[in-house]
Amino acid sequence: MKLFYRHFGEGRPVIILHGIFGISDNWVTLGKRLAEKFSVYIPDQRNHGQSPHSPTFNYYALAEDLHEFIHEHGLERPVIIGHSMGGKVAMSYALEHPEMVEKLVVVDISPRRYHGRNVHFDMINAMMAVNFDAVHSRDEIARLLEASIPSKRIRLFVMKNLYRKTKTTFDWRLNLEALSANLDYVFGWEENTGAFDGPALFVRGGKSDYILDEDIPLIRRMFPQAEIETIPKASHWVHAEAPAELCRQFSLFLGKECVIPDFTAEAED
Questions:
Q1: 97 classed as catalytic
Q2: Do residues 106 and 85 lie in contact, with contact meaning Cβ atoms separated by under 8 Å?
Q3: Which position among 92, 236, 239, 245 bears the catalytic label?
Q4: Domains observed in the chain
């Protein structure tokens, strides 16, 4: 599958994979900082952003998309960074093709199954309930989403998936039908007996329960060199809530100074 992507900088290749409901744009600020030293690629994963839609949506397909992307762009042993769902794609790929990955960075996700989070089902249901024939502005859509998605931060994140289909109508870039049908799979994890022996960094939010202390032995069994770092004030939305600290962790791991000025960013999962 030919993925839409954004590219910044020159040097050793870095690929950043967004989470579910996300888009490449969510990672542009961090990507541009890394692009001061690296060649940074930020694709939209299938059924997201400007990439193609498909009824097939699982980690086998997403990892295969990544494999094709690496070959298509002639990337030699890239650093792969993934958040949430993107982190599971990155881990799956590194375990399946360890020789293809120089370093691995996983942001706030573990290699295990999670119970479905109500917020994700609420987001999908709210988006699917919007009747685009009856609304004509972003403000109207925001008001419709407010009842099901009370968090302004999450609403702003959802709204980044809107685009103008015509001069007077909107639509979602997300393939909501495929995401809804496969959401349980996204929370899952396919057992893998392989291991990635290369350098690996796992960054967790101190207010998040996606990487628990009891997950660490499991992580280190699959990723023996894994370093575990915690950003105390961040929840699962690490790159939105603590971008400067996350950038600092990337710097220490990748050997590149990464400084982000104060700014406001929308969150993504």
A1: no
A2: no
A3: 236
A4: 5-114+189-254 (3.40.50.1820), 118-183 (no CATH)
